[in-house]
């Protein structure tokens, strides 16, 4: 893979006149940047990495506490769930200067200053579809607070939208991984195309002294692996042929695989430390200030997971186990850009309260191809919620839905699909959930109704919802439904996953100094 | 023989990858793992979810953590960004699996 490291001239965040006012000058404070690579972890042989956020929009509270207590050397912020690029693309369609995870704007004031002050580095894919703009926003915010000397690395190259046509002309059919059909068979408009990239750019950016890394679609666990490669100098690729080299590389492959597994455990924040947990239900610990997972990683690729003692949550064999299995398919072949991970011989041991040892991960050579996620326009959806109370709540709701169907069947609009569910009986699991007995349904306190339509234009949703408001006076008694509970014309994007040869991917690391 | 719900002997977590939902079923003990390994087949899971899962269910055994992983294809109404469902991400596939009843020695 080709790549280049480019140093640009320092950003001048005040060049557009932004922030160049008296107030900014007055509020400037002195922050000493501690560049020590190892804050307070157990010596040069280990390194502490914390999962600082589990998704775009997650609270920064847990990470701020970790930064304050110097609980880690690095914070990993994974903002990009599979769905997130679609959300960011919706932003970017409205404004070319958006498309990144916007919560980094507030984190630049809440989390980043305390992290940098304590010598903690931050690695994130919050750059989303627009890492360059994200870096400018952060640099401006830091400057406004008088924080200087921060090196921000911008990692790009995952955006392959401009090259899709060229790829197809070169003979790539871009077959859908799920359905097997070629991209040419789909008429839907393409909105974005981003390839999942590996850990090497993260490692290179850290080698260049970056304090903050803003990447695009670097695969979630590769954020962590990049830190470990930087710190332990693990080999991503075999350096030469020969029996001895191959044996050494297998050793490195196991470490890389372990790094990925550790990254996977950190990437969903509180989900590894007692959040969203059936295993630990009824959760006999605080969840309002849940501590996020911290991995102390050793050179051999093993790790000890913990959390801050001052925070809630729990780190147990159960909490680590349930996050390990989350969004994994074949546990013997977890495919990532840098290594194929075999998790089947994993060892998860509780060594003391809230401390779990993690080992036993094996690696296989990286895949030949990388995953490209192509976004496509899918039209719009509109939904609305209604409620009925006792008596006859279930009967009234059923009757209401019949009336809605009748009204919609007479409208001069094109409803592509409509779905109706009863919140309280089948709202979440549809017909797979057993319907409660008639005696229960007859006496049930209340039932909610959700109606949802999929449509291809911007008038159908409004017309549909407007057309059924009359049922408030004309329908079953006691209908409750406030316009605005639902949402009209939500843009729907579908994802087209495919595989492409690595040669098409050319990443770039750019260092911006504030 | 007596009927029990999986909830009594296991926990679960589910999540999404586009239109695929995976459900990790984690036994609460090695003894319970032997039971779920024998009783909770891919076919049984597919049937239990009725119309929610339109494609094939593949089961992976994960002995090291006493768990089964069910990979359910065409399970999320096209995927989270285009699904008309309330649980677009399949977070509650875990809950529904835990509701499954199996028969064990009394």
Structural summary, described in words:
The complex is a heterodimer of chains A (514) and B (106). With 514 residues, chain A is α+β, with helices and mostly antiparallel strands. Chain A has two domains: 3-158 and 196-367, no CATH class; 163-195 and 368-514, no CATH class. Chain A contains 15 helices and 19 strands. In chain A, the strands form three sheets. An eleven-stranded mixed beta sheet of chain A has the order 1-19-5-7-4-3-2-8-9-13-12, sandwiched between helices. In chain A, a hairpin with a 2-residue loop joins strand 12 and strand 13 (355-359). In chain A, helix 4 runs parallel beside helix 6 (131-144), helix 8 (200-207) packs across helix 9 (220-232) and helix 9 (220-232) packs across helix 10 (243-266). The longest helix of chain A has 24 residues, at 243-266. Chain A is globular, with a radius of gyration of 26 Å. With 106 residues, chain B is an alpha+beta fold. Chain B has a single domain (2-104), classed as Alpha-Beta Plaits (2-Layer Sandwich), CATH 3.30.70. In chain B, the strands form two sheets. In chain B, strands 2-3-5-4 form a four-stranded antiparallel beta sheet. Chain B has a two-stranded antiparallel sheet with strand order 1-6. In chain B, a hairpin with a 2-residue loop joins strand 2 (10-17) and strand 3 (20-27). The model of chain B has no long low-confidence stretch (mean pLDDT 97).
Task: Summarize this entry quickly.
The complex is a heterodimer of chains A (514) and B (106). With 514 residues, chain A is an alpha+beta fold.
Supply the CATH class of chain B: Alpha Beta
Number of domains of chain B: 1
> Approximately how much beta-strand content do the residues of chain B carry?
25-35%
Q: Which strand order spans the largest sheet of chain A, edge to edge or round the barrel? A: 1-19-5-7-4-3-2-8-9-13-12
Over the alpha carbons, how many angstroms does the gyration radius of chain B reach? 14 Å
Number of domains of chain A: 2
* Total number of beta strands of chain B: 6
Helix fraction of chain B by DSSP (H/I, runs of at least 4): 10-25%
For the record, give the distance between the C-alpha atoms at the N and C termini of chain B, rounded to a whole number. Answer: 5 Å
Order of helices and strands of chain B: EEEHHEEHE
Average pLDDT confidence of chain B is 97
Helix content of chain A: 25-40%
Based on the coordinates given, report the CATH architecture of chain B.
Answer: 2-Layer Sandwich
Alpha plus pi helix count of chain B: 3
* CATH fold assignment of chain B: Alpha-Beta Plaits
Measure the end-to-end span of chain A: 29 Å
Major sheet of chain B: 4 strands, antiparallel
Task: Kindly report the greatest chain-chain contact and the residue count on each side.
Answer: A-B, 53 and 44 residues
């Amino acid at each position: 893979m080709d790549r280049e490291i480019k140093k640009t001239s320092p950003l001048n965040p005040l060049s557009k006149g932004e922030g160049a006012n008296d107030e900014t000058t007055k509020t400037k404070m002195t922050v000493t940047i501690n560049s020590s690579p190892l804050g307070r972890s157990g010596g040069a042989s280990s390194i502490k990495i914390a999962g600082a956020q589990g998704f775009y929009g997650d609270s920064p509270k847990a990470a701020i506490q970790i930064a304050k207590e110097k609980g880690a050397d690095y914070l990993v912020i994974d903002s990009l769930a599979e769905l997130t690029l679609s959300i960011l693309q919706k932003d970017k369609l409205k404004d070319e200067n958006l498309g990144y995870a916007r919560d980094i704007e507030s984190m630049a004031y809440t989390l980043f200053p305390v992290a940098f002050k304590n010598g903690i580095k931050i690695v994130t894919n919050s750059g989303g579809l627009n890492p360059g703009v994200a870096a400018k926003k952060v640099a401006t915010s830091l400057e406004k607070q008088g924080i200087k000397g921060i090196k921000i690395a911008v990692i790009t190259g995952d955006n392959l939208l401009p090259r899709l046509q060229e790829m197809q002309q070169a003979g790539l059919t871009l077959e859908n991984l799920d359905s097997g059909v070629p991209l040419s068979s789909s008429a839907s408009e393409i909105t974005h195309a981003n390839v999942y990239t590996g850990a090497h750019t993260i490692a290179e950016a850290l080698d260049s002294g970056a304090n903050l890394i803003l990447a695009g679609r670097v695969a979630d666990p590769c954020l962590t692996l990049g830190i470990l490669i930087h710190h332990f100098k693990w080999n991503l690729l075999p350096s030469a042929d020969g029996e001895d080299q191959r044996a050494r590389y297998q050793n490195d492959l196991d470490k890389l695989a372990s790094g990925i597994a550790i990254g996977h455990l950190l990437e969903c924040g509180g989900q590894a430390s007692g959040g969203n947990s059936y295993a630990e239900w009824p959760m006999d610990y605080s969840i309002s200030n849940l501590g996020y997972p911290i991995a102390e990683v050793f050179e051999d690729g093993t790790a000890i997971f913990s959390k801050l003692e001052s925070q809630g949550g729990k780190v147990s064999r159960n909490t680590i186990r349930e996050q390990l299995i989350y969004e994994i398919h074949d546990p013997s072949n977890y495919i990532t850009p840098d290594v194929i991970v075999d998790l089947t011989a994993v060892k998860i041991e509780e060594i003391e309260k809230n401390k779990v040892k993690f080992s036993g991960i094996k690696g296989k050579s990286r895949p030949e191809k990388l995953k490209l996620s192509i976004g496509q326009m899918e039209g719009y959806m509109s939904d609305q919620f209604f409620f009925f109370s006792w008596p006859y709540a279930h009967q009234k709701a059923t009757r209401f839905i019949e009336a809605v169907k009748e009204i919609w069947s007479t409208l001069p609009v094109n409803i592509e699909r409509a779905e109706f569910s009863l919140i309280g009986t089948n709202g979440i699991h549809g017909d797979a959930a057993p319907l409660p007995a008639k005696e229960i349904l007859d006496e049930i306190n209340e039932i909610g109704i959700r109606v949802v339509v999929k449509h291809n234009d911007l008038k159908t949703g409004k017309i549909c919802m407007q057309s059924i408001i009359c049922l408030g006076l004309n329908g079953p008694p006691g209908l409750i439904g406030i316009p605005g509970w639902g949402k009209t014309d939500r843009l729907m994007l579908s994802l087209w996953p495919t595989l492409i040869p690595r040669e098409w991917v050319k990443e770039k690391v750019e260092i911006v100094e504030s | 023989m007596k009927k029990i719900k999986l909830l009594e002997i296991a926990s679960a977590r589910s999540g999404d990858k586009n239109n695929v939902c995976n459900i990790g079923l984690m036994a609460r003990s090695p003894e319970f793992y032997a039971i779920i390994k024998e009783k909770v087949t891919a076919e049984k899971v597919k049937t239990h979810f009725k119309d929610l899962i339109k494609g094939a269910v593949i089961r992976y055994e994960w002995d090291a953590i006493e768990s089964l992983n069910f990979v359910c294809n065409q399970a999320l109404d096209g995927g989270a960004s285009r699904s008309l469902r309330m649980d677009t991400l399949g977070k509650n596939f875990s809950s529904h699996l835990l509701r499954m009843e199996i028969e064990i020695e009394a």
